[in-house]
Amino acid sequence: MALRLLAVLVALVIVWSVPQLARWRDDRWFRLWVGRLADISGPGKVAVVLLVPVIACVIVAGILRSLPFFDLGWLVFAIAVLVYALGPREIETDIDAVLRARDTLRRDEAVAALRHDDAPLGWFAPVLVEAAFYGALRRRFGVLLWFFLLGPAGALGYRLAQTLARDAAMGLDTATRASARRLADALDWIPAHLMVFAMALVSDFDAVMGAWKQWHRTSGSPRSRLEPDFLGAVARAGVDADVEAGDGYVQDVSDPIAELEDARRVIRRVLIVWLAVVAVIVLAAWFA
Question: Mean pLDDT, to the nearest integer, of 190-211?
Fold first, then answer.
């Protein structure tokens, strides 16, 4: 776990320091691979499309882990996979683009880059806050969780599953798209819950947990269905509570700028909580 934490810290420093790396995150190879399997569809296609690159990643990581030099080869490979899997852009970069837009045209372009699915975003505080947190989930926290649990293969598999399910340019048939979406939602379920629990620590605990419980009581979604849809409602409640409490320069929860600024702060605090928890686990393992 210590090596994984080190890989995450180095990868985060790299993507924050060199935002131009977003251009390197090219998924054309994955699109070509998906296109080669046009003769199959449904869950079988999703399994083949994802398992082949994931297994290849496992093999490379295993070979590098068996080499000498204190796992240096594995660490470099893990950092490279993380840098590729995070993003495609840092969520703070897109939020800052919205906050610093000089005119309506640039603002609308920045808002379009912030969206987490194909649905357009309007200039309304609630939908922008939701988009920010879903973007943080799928660009960062989902990648990090599955990397901590499964190593480079987990990070790559998560990124490819999200791309397959949520990128309309993939041109999937209905059955394959539905299967891919179910898998992507299931992979989001655990990190979304961990984000909620971290938000409860760094934001208004009662507002966050109350919104989480309220969503599960009223959504009508069966508990057996693994979906991250509760995250939007929880994020809105936590950010609204912060803004109303004066965590910023205004207390207007209908102000998109104020809400996005607080969302940015909460997302960064959640990351700090995650890294702190992993660091504690690593220290506990050393002293056990």
Answer: 93
Q: pLDDT digit string (tens) for 142-168? A: 999 999 999 999 999 999 999 999 887
Two tokens at 13? Answer: 């420093």
- Cβ–Cβ contacts within 10 Å for residue 208, how many? 24
Q: What is the mean pLDDT of residues 254-282?
A: 92
Which range has the worst mean pLDDT, 53-62, 76-85, 186-195, 245-254? 245-254
User: What is the pTM assigned to this prediction?
Assistant: 0.92
